[in-house]
Amino acid sequence: MTTLDERRAAGPEAVPDALAATDAPAGPDASDPLVTPPAPDLSDAALARVTARLASTAEEHDRTAAFPWRGIAAVHEAGLLTLGVGRRYGGPGLSAVDAVRVFAALGQGDPAVALIAAMTVLQHGLQDRAPWWPEDVYRALVARSAREPQLLNAVRAEPEWGAPARGGLPATTVRRDGDGWVLEGRKGFATGSEGLAYHLVWAVDPDGPSGEPEVAHAVVPGGLPGVRVVRTWDHLGQRATSTHDVVYDRVRIPLDHFRGTPVQQQGRGDLPHGSLLSVPALYVGVARAAQAFLVRFAHERVPGSLGRPIATTERIQTVVGEVEAQLVGAEELLLGLAARIDAGDERAAGRAVVAKLLATRAAVGAVETAVAALGNPGLTRSNPLERHLRDVLASRVHPPQDDLALLLAGRAALAAGAP
């Protein structure tokens, strides 16, 4: 795990003063009272200010691939990292509509920060809907979250296993040892790895008390001995997400930090509706950032052969219209579906898988349209459009990937029409 001292050694910008205490504790602090996270300002104006603040450092984060601490600080200070904390824990909760609005705004500013934040908010939402953490540990986490950023993520994928959604058992194991557990294994694609307060590690107990292997997420404080981040993430886009491998080398955790369920009883789980649409929304935000650059470039670019801005030509006006049409479609899809989810429409919640596919396809198409219209300037590193293209392409790898989303949608439609 990257320590606070190591971050300070990396330079004055590696860790802001506001984050001086974000190294994960080894466990809950019994003295922490339950502190109610402040209700954030979710007005359009407030979200626009966060977008602008994130955008001011997004290029630097992309170039260096360093952990985006300043962006995380901005999201924390705006009260957005605790959006998913449920009312039972004193939090504000999160509607699906606000999840779409918030993460579109964060994605427009810095999608790497938005993705790390989305993983944290998702875990809070899961705890709210179906509590599974040790209660004292989670309440202490909420208390700390009101004071400083506390990042969370479910660490599930493995280099050889692949994505858990495709099935199979993890190679990462937990085994009883005295009054606790010992966790061993290596995980891949752990977004936020270098800054996680808690790793929620998908692992198997091969010798479960039920007589068969039992699986669950182990609650692992990021600062425990044996937790080691391996900097493997060197991707085309989303470069500052710290989506590295993590090695768990005989990590000891308390007994109540793992509660396995027999494999045969495992279901898909109940995702919090307020977070279902966060990931596609943040990539629509990326496309909005690309459009903003396209519009600005079109007004500033005056070719000598034309003598006026290219924004005055029908060709560019049509291109900008095409981008706008794709983004309006994506936004209306996500917001409309979100409103139905908030109203309790179960059919709408079931369509979130297809919405992810359609919204991210539209976002990718919008950015590709902008790049194609500008030619070389669109792929020049001094312009942000090439970064937006690299980032938006990362939307395709998030579960459910396109083929699985289509498979699930196809099976559901066939089952509904079966004689």
Report on this structure.
- With 419 residues, the chain is of the alpha+beta class.
- It is built from twelve helices and eight strands.
- The strands form two sheets. The protein has a four-stranded mixed β-sheet. It has a four-stranded antiparallel β-sheet with strand order 2-3-7-6, with no helix packed on it.
- Helix 2 packs across helix 4, helix 10 (352-374) runs antiparallel to helix 11 and helix 10 packs across helix 12.
- The longest helix has 29 residues, at 314-342.
- 47% of the residues are buried.
- Residues 1-33 have low confidence and may be disordered.
Summarize the model shown:
It contains 12 helices and 8 strands. With 419 residues, the chain is of the alpha+beta class. It folds into 3 domains: 147 residues, Orthogonal Bundle (Butyryl-Coa Dehydrogenase, subunit A, domain 1); 100 residues, Beta Barrel (Butyryl-CoA Dehydrogenase, subunit A, domain 2); 141 residues, Up-down Bundle (Butyryl-CoA Dehydrogenase, subunit A, domain 3), CATH 1.20.140.10.
Per CATH, the class of the largest domain reads: Mainly Alpha
Task: Count the domains.
Answer: 3
Please give the order of strands in the largest beta sheet: 1-4-5-8
CATH superfamily of the largest domain: Acyl-CoA dehydrogenase/oxidase, N-terminal domain
CATH-defined architecture of the largest domain: Orthogonal Bundle
Radius of gyration, in angstroms, nearest whole number: 22 Å
